[in-house]
Amino acid sequence: MVEKIPMTASGHQALEEELKRLTSIERPRIINAISEARAHGDLSENAEYHAAKEQQSLNEGRIAELEDKLGRAEIIDVSKLSGSKIKFGATVKLIDEDSEQEKTYQIVGDMEADVKSGRISISSPIARALIGKDIGDTVEVVAPGGAHSYEVVDVRYV
């Protein structure tokens, strides 16, 4: 059974754009670099050739990974979701009960997570603790940085 990978429509589109860039821009550029390096003669001591071959290997590996993830993607249209219960795609506003700091996160798929932009992976400790909770609930999160307690103050689906 093929395991589906949940992702938002915007996350799916970003991965498709990356795949297109890698196949239509990076792949030809690397192939060109390999043939230029080949023209310089002896391949055993040709650093440009070996660097280009390594780039090719990394690029092809990423292409294969993206094709696999996109092939197993289950696109979830967050705009069609509603309610106050937290589930995949929710944008959640939390108050840290120790520091009174407000934090806002959107729960997204593993491939589209980016903590700096407020998007956390569905498999992260905080997202796992939030799933199924409601506005007003308190959530205990045990993360690598220590235990934190948060109050859920808002849940939106945008």
From TrEMBL:
PROSITE patterns: GREAB_1, GREAB_2. Belongs to the GreA/GreB family. Signal peptide: none annotated. Pfam families: GreA_GreB (PF01272), GreA_GreB_N (PF03449). Necessary for efficient RNA polymerase transcription elongation past template-encoded arresting sites. The arresting sites in DNA have the property of trapping a certain fraction of elongating RNA polymerases that pass through, resulting in locked ternary complexes. Cleavage of the nascent transcript by cleavage factors such as GreA or GreB allows the resumption of elongation from the new 3'terminus. GreA releases sequences of 2 to 3 nucleotides. It comes from the Bacteria. GO terms for molecular function: DNA binding; RNA polymerase binding; translation elongation factor activity. InterPro entries: GreA/GreB_C_sf, TF_GreA/GreB_CS, Tscrpt_elong_fac_GreA, Tscrpt_elong_fac_GreA/B, Tscrpt_elong_fac_GreA/B_C, Tscrpt_elong_fac_GreA/B_fam, Tscrpt_elong_fac_GreA/B_N, Tscrpt_elong_fac_GreA/B_N_sf. Residues 84-157 form the Transcription elongation factor GreA/GreB C-terminal domain. Keywords: DNA-binding, Elongation factor, Protein biosynthesis, Transcription, Transcription regulation. This is Transcription elongation factor GreA. The keyword Chaperone does not apply. The lineage of its organism: Bacteria, Pseudomonadati, Pseudomonadota, Alphaproteobacteria, Hyphomicrobiales. GO terms for biological process: DNA-templated transcription elongation; regulation of DNA-templated transcription elongation. NCBIfam families: greA, PRK00226.1-2, PRK00226.1-4, PRK00226.1-5. Residues 5-75 form the Transcription elongation factor GreA/GreB N-terminal domain.
